[in-house]
């Protein structure tokens, strides 16, 4: 048993039972070990959850970084969409991620920020836009993952929410505001 195996099994357990039910006791049973042996790899449950969150975000962290010839608006949209897709890949993915600090991803974040600034986005606006879109994405996914689905009894005049379309609409508003602040309002690609 190694650290990677523990994290992989913990993520599989998360997908099966949800974040509320993940425990070191259940994980130890799943791995066929005594609970104290997990502390060899992770001193606390918080350490384990942090490692799980990092591993769960690996697909987004592996996405190509922007290059100078990329359109910053298109990249900004795709970066948020990639983050959303990655959070949705795991049960309670947004809850697992919420509150984590991306210390292992700082070089990638710096590259993204430098790309936005080089593209003409004022540095402070780039920082706030990245923070805002990240929190917006986590919030949208939290709501989507908490949605009980169409079986819920709603009044006839309340439309069923299309989570992807709602996400795209809000994302476009964030981008439009950022583009307006940069004075480079351009054609925005929307999905949905």
Automatic annotation (TrEMBL):
The keyword Signal does not apply. Pfam families: TetR_C_1 (PF02909), TetR_N (PF00440). Signal peptide: none annotated. Residues 1-60 form the HTH tetR-type domain. One of its GO terms (biological process) is negative regulation of DNA-templated transcription. It comes from the Bacteria. Keywords: DNA-binding, Repressor, Transcription, Transcription regulation. Residues 23-42 bind DNA. The keyword DNA-binding applies. One of its GO terms (molecular function) is DNA-binding transcription factor activity. The lineage of its organism: Bacteria, Bacillati, Actinomycetota, Actinomycetes, Kitasatosporales. This is Transcriptional regulator, TetR family.
